[in-house]
Amino acid sequence: MKNYALTLQSPVWDSFRCAKAANSLDIDVKKTLRHEFSVDADIETEFNVGLIVGASGSGKTTLAEMIYGSDALIRLLEPDKPVIEQFPDEFEYDQCARHLMGVGLSQVPCWIRPALTLSNGQKERAEIALQMSREDSRVVIDEWTSVVDRTVGKIMSECIQKWARRTEKQVVLLSCHYDVMDWLQPDWVIDCNKQTFVDRRSLRRSRKETLDFDIREIDRESWRYFSKYHYLSDRLPGGHIALFGMFLGIDQIGFVCFANYVPFRNEDRLYGGKMKMHCNRAVVHPDYVGLGLGLLLINETSAIMHERNFHVMAKFSSIPVYKAFKKSERWRYLGTRRDHKIVKGGNMLRDAGFRLDVAAHQWEYIPEPAGG
Questions:
Q1: Distances from the Cα of 173 to the Cαs of 80, 169, 299, 327, in angstroms?
Q2: Under a CB-based contact definition with an 8 Å cutoff, are residues 86 and 118 in contact?
């Protein structure tokens, strides 16, 4: 254990108005503007996630600067440059992608846009991705989740703690919100309000709070809000399609489409054939990435399509989706096809040359056994 003590002292103004306000309540001005802080804490023993929590003005930032130095709190994200261009020059593309996907910023369009166009939650994920790309094994982030709504803050916290433990980094987060604690599962906590230290390294990690999502069939309207986060065409496929959305309360946070790519002929029915429906355009809003909702949305809706007597297939170029499918028992890998030429024409195609030499991973849905 080591003692960390500090004094916060605000300057005293002796103006007429300040004196009048203080005298109206008989306030001891010097005492009111002075804050003493002292806590015994072990923040040196091996850990991955530390949390300094407390209300504004409780000394979180001053404490962090005293322990880690003011340079540790410098922000790295530049607003005018795309996020993926801000990693160290020696980083290969795959290293950049791995860091961005690790913190839950997995949508490629978010990588190549100027950082100032991202949402607050996306900027925070981008910032911590850049911080964790440094050679320093410790990352300190101030005002963690203070600029996002509480649900988004919890999901970001879950994602970051997983990435910190996977990469063996030490992440120290400063927050005025206690509701992130259950999702961060920190190894230690300094509470600046109570001036206490809690060592949680030996505790079993278990999150008590849950979020309830539901899936509903939808129309085409919401695609315009989700298309900007997807790597394919902003147009939905033509022909026979089925659309589903994932909702948190009244807010739609996910979108998935099933489309018939192969014409279904009447004679197919005569021989017991099923119409093939391919899962595609699966998108989870970037603020909600990190809980595995993408695969959950795809699996749940694929089960619905299977129950409707369709032969469910899937084809994705997304590497995160490919990795998730490889771990899932619900999908059989059929191989990868790489197109080396562009076929012009048709209302589903993008501008010529955009999809050149891109691998498409193909899958077949395996229904869960009865009673499984």
A1: 25, 13, 34, 31
A2: no
Query: What distance in Å separates the CA atoms of residue 211 and residue 151, rounded to the nearest whole number?
Result: 9
User: What is the spatial distance between Cα 255 and Cα 215, in angstroms, rounded to a whole number?
Assistant: 9
Count other Cβ atoms within 10 Å, centred on residue 58.
20
The HSE-up count of residue 190 (CA atoms within 13 Å, CB side) is 25
- Structure token digits, residue 258: 């099933």
CB 245 within 8 A of CB 219: no
CA distance 217 to 295: 17
- Whether domain 214-365 has CATH 3.40.630.30: the reply is yes
Q: What percent of the chain has pLDDT over 70?
A: 86
Hey, what amino acid is at 14?
D
Q: What DSSP state is assigned to residue 32?
A: H
- The burial class, CB within 10 Å (0-12 / 13-18 / 19+), for 120 is middle
CA distance 287 to 125: 9
Per the prediction, the chain carries an average pLDDT of 86
Model confidence, pTM: 0.81
SS3 303: helix
Q: 315 exposed, middle or buried (CB, 10 Å; 0-12, 13-18, 19+)?
A: middle
Report, as an integer, the average pLDDT of 309-322. Answer: 87
The crossing angle, in degrees rounded to 10, of helices 120-132 and 150-167 is: 10
Q: Which CATH superfamily is domain 47-199 in?
A: P-loop containing nucleotide triphosphate hydrolases (3.40.50.300)
Where do the domains of the chain lie?
A: 47-199, 214-365
Q: Contact, 155 vs 294, CB < 8 A?
A: no
State how far Cα 299 lies from the chain centre: 20
Q: From CA 98, how far away is CA 95, in angstroms rounded?
A: 5
